[in-house]
């Protein structure tokens, strides 16, 4: 429940509250403030009686805002027993809000997905993986948990992809998670992207490789090395690096056949990138280059 506060009620609420107070300092003219409120209400509701959400209209109580040293809207204050614990400014995502609030809350969020995200924000990766698995076991059609679990499995330990035993275990779990997914879940475009990433990562992990040597061969224009190295980067979630790498190889390639191979590899990468804004920006850069097919 959200409670509006005034300059008169603020001190009493702060002094008498036994739980943590989340104070949202906002203004009616502030579009980011209005966008943030539904997320705040959703996140605050997951903490039950441990957290109370208060809203303070900065236009109505400028002296109180000044006293709180608020200079930017929106500003979030966490207060307990009259003391400010922390503050945050600007628009935030749900996961960022969870990461901001959770360290100061004794009772964890009631929702498994929110608990998992909170654990991930605190670096408790293994616990996050366990919670996602529990959520999937409770509801096999929970694609949000399935996508989060597989993404985390792929991105864990990406610096040594295809080399250490932990990567193989993570890939095995990701494959199992995909195989157990109901048919309707597999129609999700995000899960389809992850399927491609898992297949590539599994192929790369079949044997230990000297990735530094492969990178050197790729720099020299070896097409097989270019494909392998870009797959390795993408399998570890390093899409931006993979895209820049392929664009550089495309610019440097002088042979038309090589240009076609690299361009097709780049298109495949774009189709599997989870960040569509990033993919579209990269696609525009690729199309700004001359398409080798156009000169045939």
Automatic annotation (TrEMBL):
It comes from Thalassolituus marinus. This is Thioredoxin domain-containing protein. Pfam families: Thioredoxin (PF00085). Gene3D superfamilies: Glutaredoxin (3.40.30.10), Tetratricopeptide repeat domain (1.25.40.10). Keywords: Disulfide bond, Electron transport, Redox-active center, Transport. Residues 1-106 form the Thioredoxin domain. The keyword Electron transport applies. It comes from the Bacteria.
